[in-house]
Amino acid sequence: MSRWSVLGDGVAGLCVATSLAERGESVEVITAEQHCAASHWAGGMLAPWCEGESAPEEVIELGQRSAPWWSARINGVEHRGTLVVASARDTPELTRFSRMTRAHQWVDPATLEPALEGRFSRGLFFAGEAHLDPRSALQQLRKGLQLAGVCFHQGQPGGTIIDCRGIHAAADQPELRAVRGEMLILHSEEVQLSRPVRILHPRFPCYLVPRAAGHLMLGATMVESDDDSPISARAMMELLSAAWAIHPALAEARIVESGTGRRPAYRNNIPAIRCHNGVWSLNGMYRHGFLLAPVMAEKLMQQLMQEKLI
């Protein structure tokens, strides 16, 4: 019987299980029967400095520890920074973004991404940021845990519970709310990018994240809704409009996948570690799952050590 039972195999659950296993703890992961974790639909941007536009300082500070954690455990973390651009009519948005963030420099976007030649006169480059393929990252963590003897199953937990079920824990934590995100995966032979490109817009800022074999992840809307139905026509049109604004050749890209996820969030949009009646939880990742889950998992380990539980 395992000493620890992690509920959920999304990014929070796998990071917690990995942190426990690395400390020699006996752990099992309880998986869901049907639903897909919100992290399956994530962009995979490890971008603490860009998040400073709307996130509190705590997110920026904690998020800087994320890329080293991932790089030490999986293959495929790309340390190529983030490029932020805006169309000519939205230049004030770029200026505003520069004032609200730091650790960036003004650049000619084409010097970093030749595909953008002639598209944008100026951009912001956040050199210290990184990105990864979320699905590959989760698969690698899972494989590493299985090799370490961690059991994944859908049965009853046998150890002390750490609940990392995201929005599916809302019945036990009614203060959680769902924030719907919608995304597309495109395939293009014409537009090649080497780093995430964010395009600013007053109503629907979007980003493109390069993935393998000519694929690009395009996301992501932020809607205060518990709806997990397929992507709306409006969201798809807005996302594709943003892609066209980045490069007109993306009008000929093929849509190979669309998806929606419900991000779990507390009122302040900051994740939290909680313990009630002997049940621990790590939840409320909001839009910062891959950025903050590793750091929050390590913070949980520190609390468990202080409680002399590990």
Record the SSE blueprint.
Layout: E1 4-7, H1 11-22, E2 27-30, E3 45-46, H2 48-51, H3 57-63, H4 66-71, E4 82-86, H5 91-100, E5 105-107, H6 109-112, E6 123-126, E7 130-131, H7 134-147, E8 151-153, E9 160-163, E10 177-187, E11 197-200, E12 206-210, E13 215-219, H8 233-246, E14 254-265, E15 272-276, E16 279-283, H9 289-306
Parallel strand pairs: 1-2, 1-9, 2-8, 4-11, 9-16
Antiparallel strand pairs: 3-7, 4-6, 5-6, 10-13, 10-14, 11-12, 12-13, 15-16
Helix pairs in contact: 1-7, 1-9
Protein name: FAD-dependent oxidoreductase
Domain FAD dependent oxidoreductase: 6-300
GO molecular function: oxidoreductase activity
Description of the structure:
The protein has 310 residues and is α/β, with parallel strands linked by helices. The protein has helices at 11-22, 48-51, 57-63, 66-71, 91-100, 109-112, 134-147, 233-246, 289-306, and strands at residues 4-7, 27-30, 45-46, 82-86, 105-107, 123-126, 130-131, 151-153, 160-163, 177-187, 197-200, 206-210, 215-219, 254-265, 272-276, 279-283. Strand 12 and strand 13 form a beta hairpin. Helix 1 (11-22) packs parallel to helix 7 and helix 1 (11-22) crosses helix 9. This is FAD-dependent oxidoreductase. One of its GO terms (cellular component) is cytoplasm. One of its GO terms (molecular function) is oxidoreductase activity.
Order of strands in the sheet with most strands: 5-6-4-11-12-13-10-14
Stretches where pLDDT is under 50 for at least 5 consecutive residues are: none
CATH class of the largest domain: Alpha Beta
Q: Return the structural class.
A: alpha/beta
Largest β sheet strand count, sense and barrel closure = 8 strands, mixed
Strand content: 25-35%
Distance between the termini: 16 Å
Count of helix runs: 9
Shape call: globular
Number of domains: 2
CATH topology of the largest domain: Rossmann fold
Averaged pLDDT: 95
Write down the secondary-structure element order.
EHEEHHHEHEHEEHEEEEEEHEEEH
- Total beta strands: 16
The Cα radius of gyration reads: 20 Å
Helix content: 25-40%
Classified in CATH, the superfamily of the largest domain is: NAD(P)-binding Rossmann-like Domain
GO molecular function, one term: oxidoreductase activity
InterPro entries: FAD-dep_OxRdtase, FAD/NAD-bd_sf
Organism: Erwinia sorbitola
Pfam family, one: DAO
